[in-house]
Amino acid sequence: MTAEIIVVGNELLDGSRRDEHTAYLAAQMAAVGVTVERSILVPDDPAIIEATMLRALEAADLVVTTGGLGVTSDDLTKQVAARVCGRRLALDERALSRVRERFEERGLAMPEINVSQAMVPEGARVIENRHGTAPGLLIEHGEALLFLLPGVGTEMRAMVEGYVVPFLEGRGLRRLTEERLIRTTGLSESRVAEIVGPLARRIARTEIAYLPSRSGVDLKVVSRIGATEDAGRAADEAAERIAEALGPFVYARGPEALEEIVGYLLSMARLRLAVAESCTAGRIGWRITRVPGSSAYFAGGVIAYSDDVKRRALGVRAETLASHGAVSEETAREMAAGACAAAGADVGLAVTGIAGPDGGSSEKPVGLVHIAVAGRFERAQRHLFAGGRDAVREQAAQAALELLRRALLNIEGT
Fold it and tell me: In DSSP terms, which residues pair with 206 in a beta bridge?
């Protein structure tokens, strides 16, 4: 089966937003044996959308569009698809009920304009949107399948994984690949490749993709064996060997973020955490509390940007600041202990550093960060991060959570 992808939106063509849909959709299609032969970005222009859709339906067995299913004047994909397929738009009462429920769940009355989202090409199958108001659609046009999906990433991905892929598998397509994700932090991409590369060459029928970011390096292990059982077993075995080689630098064997792992470990140990942040300015607290249920193990935090707040709110001694400075191991340790005491927590985590672009010196350059854990555990680390202000802050937050993870697991070293 062949496929074409049409991604709709002016914002993708004027540089306001990057296209992240094509790679995701292509990977999902490839996993069930669908060959994506073409992907194209088009503006919110009905004539261009129509010409592109007509050509795609003639050339491919499957066409997937994203975007243009909203209620504004530039949301035209559904109307164009109805015209291309020779279908009349009609109100789908069930779809309207679901749209109205989405608003009622938030305590809002549905604006009349949203009725348009329940207008469906005759004969189309409605795909429920569990994360928004715009339903997806499936239209069977001759021998071709046309999927119309929302442009919002979370909504689109939920429909692909919850409906599109199962639908294709139900048509006799079978999954040809299995993927496993390994998440690491604390190692550069080159160091990860140095460790994994020789091993990867000895693992048959498996591909490894390196996915670096400021927070670490993820590895995607892909097995492309025909039988699902064999592919899954091969992917599991490869992932196990790679994770073993990387050792304590692996923090997850799946999509979980580091803050989710830390939260799980705190919960299992029945410990409560407090944080004190200077250069990260609340980034650690935000990451911890973005995890549902974090109130069970997170007591709170202090953003102590000035020396005065470090003294008053966290009990950092004036002589420590005078002798060692705000950016020092000694100050970080006292900040962590102060956060722990102020919140009545079991563990304190603190970060202080120089994010830049100013404020550095030859002795304490931009990118210098000190991290400390206090309370039930006592640990400290010094880092020198590269990059601009945001990069330093992001790397510092990741390193702080990693130091806490290692403390909770009693893993020594860096």
Answer: 223
Task: Indicate left, alpha or beta for 186 from its phi (over 0: left) and psi (-120 to 50: alpha).
Answer: left
Range 256-260, long-range pairs (CB < 8 A, 24+ positions): 256/183, 257/287, 257/291, 258/183, 258/185, 258/215, 258/287, 258/398, 258/401, 258/402, 258/405, 259/287, 259/288, 259/290, 259/291, 259/401, 260/291
Q: pLDDT tens for residues 125-159?
A: 999 999 999 999 999 999 999 999 999 999 999 99
Domain covering 2-170 in this structure, CATH number: 3.40.980.10
Residue corresponding to tokens 């007509």: 54
**Per-residue pLDDT tens for 252-299?**
999 999 999 999 999 999 999 999 999 999 999 999 999 999 999 999
β-pairing verdict for 216-223 and 125-127 = unpaired
What is the per-residue pLDDT across 80-118, written as a single tens digit (0 to 9) for each? 999 999 999 999 999 999 999 989 998 999 999 999 999
How far apart CA 209 and CA 191 sit, in angstroms, is: 14
Residue 81 CA: distances (Å) to CA of 127, 141, 147, 412: 16, 10, 10, 59
CATH T-level fold of 178-252: Alpha-Beta Plaits (3.30.70)
- The CA-atom distances, in angstroms, between 139 and each of 4, 63, 79, 147, 232 are 15, 10, 13, 6, 32
Beta-bridge partners for 375: 347
Domain ranges of the chain: 2-170, 178-252, 270-409
- Architecture of domain 270-409 in this structure: Alpha-Beta Complex (3.90)
| Torsion sign across C-alpha atoms 183, 187, 189, 195 | negative
Structure pTM? Answer: 0.76
